[in-house]
Design goal:
Structural class: alpha/beta
Strand content: 15-25%
Number of strands: 14
Order of helices and strands: EHEEHEHEEHEEHEEHEEHEHHEHH
CATH topology: Rossmann fold
CATH architecture: 3-Layer(aba) Sandwich
Number of domains: 1
Strand order of the largest sheet: 3-2-1-4-5-7-11
CATH class: Alpha Beta
Shape: globular
Distance between the termini: 16 Å
Helix content: 25-40%
Mean pLDDT: 92
Radius of gyration: 20 Å
CATH superfamily: NAD(P)-binding Rossmann-like Domain
Number of helices: 11
Amino acid sequence: MRLLVTGANGFLGHVTTRLGLHRGHQVRVMVRKSSDTTRIDGLPVERAEGDIRDVDSMIRAMEGVEAVIHLAGISDWLEIQSAEMRASIVGGTENVVRAALAAGKPRLVYASSISAINATAGPTIQNEETPCQLDLDDPAFVFVRTKREAEQVCLDAVKQGLPAILTNPPETFGPNDTGLITSRNLINSYGQKPVLVCDGGVCVGYSEDVASALVAAAEKGRPGERYIFGGENVTVRAIAEMIFTILGEPRAALRIPTWVLRTVTAVAVTTHLPLPYNPLMVPFATRYWYFDNQKAVRELGVQFRGLAEAMRPAVEWIENAGLFPGRPPKRALQHRFDPTVYAHLSHQT
């Protein structure tokens, strides 16, 4: 299959690109002229210069392809309430859909997020059919709202004959996270003294598993359907404790009641006091984002690793890069991107 990946140079995009090649597909990557392509340099891919803000460049990038995996857009927690959020996520997806409709209607896989579905106050397992009960007018959930809007853009296009598929990746860990998309949370947790945890939980995944599922969705996902790509459902405490278990550095975690954490955060933000954590994460971390992945397992033939297997490569990469505060690197990385991590996915031509 001729496959186009947008955001191919990103944290999840570079693994998806490698998985596409590994599965025998002809992969074209769309990158901006200014993009850092370190993580995909040397791969036997065709490059198309373009931008999701430019429909014409998107149409050119899609010429002759049979499937598109759309990953480009804001994904950094530090930008989760950015003024550019809607333009990037919704506007970008609208342009991708317009281009796909004009370029022969290739299969379109949209990488949304589990947060676009729903969250609960307690540890309740949800699935693809769960209705959203979050207050989407709350500024704290602008990311949720924009992701849902982008999903609706894709579903509306299905009515116009575009075979679009929705996918919902979880909190995804993995090595070579040079932009610190999810690694920053692990680094921040390690740097806390004492380590603070709240009552909340999330579905986690490993970057290679999620990327494999994205490619599988491009191959055989059903248009108009949603697929959850999460692995194990775990608490915030379990994630924090796993960091220190992997590092062999036992450290106690201090539980902060939800109401206390939310109150302290609100006061600190209002008075511009520094916090040892990202305040934008509190509305997410103090809820449960637990999901059932069986539809993806059953229909796409994919599997997802548990917490320890998902986090170990990420924690070891962070340690080797010397990013844990006060902890020396165990093995210095030779380059900003360590190509040995995904060596088994290299595609030989």
